[in-house]
């Protein structure tokens, strides 16, 4: 992911901001169950990006990946509308408990810009419903220049989004975060449908680190900078997640990207190890496979 990339990551203040005041209220209105559902993964599974992750002789990348991580942020569906046959092929390669998080196709979000997209949304949702128990949550990422003046389009899309398909939404234009009233209208819309407000932690866009949850589900896209600061940033997230869990967080979906994806599995493994230690979880720590060494 190149979004938010900067030339000198060491000059960025990566400290996490305080929570939006509404976050504690949202979490507090939900009864915290005894189980904490945690999914941590990468954005891609192909060998070209994750160089050194796969042992020599690996024949099927998804099959191997899905036995190292419990989820994948499925960006392939952004570039091409999935069909049920492709979805079933992916599903049958993965073990029980694995989850896909497919991104809505760019025809919907970027080319048609949420104008008269109900047919495309239904086609997309019908296809991904074939993931069945492997479906985690779909997510909609609108174009960088999709601004609050287009909120009515987003509202129409969300109001008619197919029931039974969980959804998270990512807005990117600075105007969504600069005006408190505008942001309130957006987050109220998400809350009304129990949709999740995606948080993006990336160097060049600290405003997207809004810390405003709209449901008891935290959907975080962490973008490492291929820099030693990546480890401390992940460590800081552990503390924030612990706070949210105490306040009522039920589910965490955390996806590790990098500007150059090479070290994403190692970063994710570090985060998983820390989550296991902090919360008493038993998430699998990916094997130290192939030619990967130590971070930085």
From TrEMBL:
Gene3D superfamilies: Protein of unknown function UPF0759. InterPro entries: DUF72, UPF0759_sf. SUPFAM superfamilies: TM1631-like (SSF117396). It comes from the Bacteria. This is DUF72 domain-containing protein.
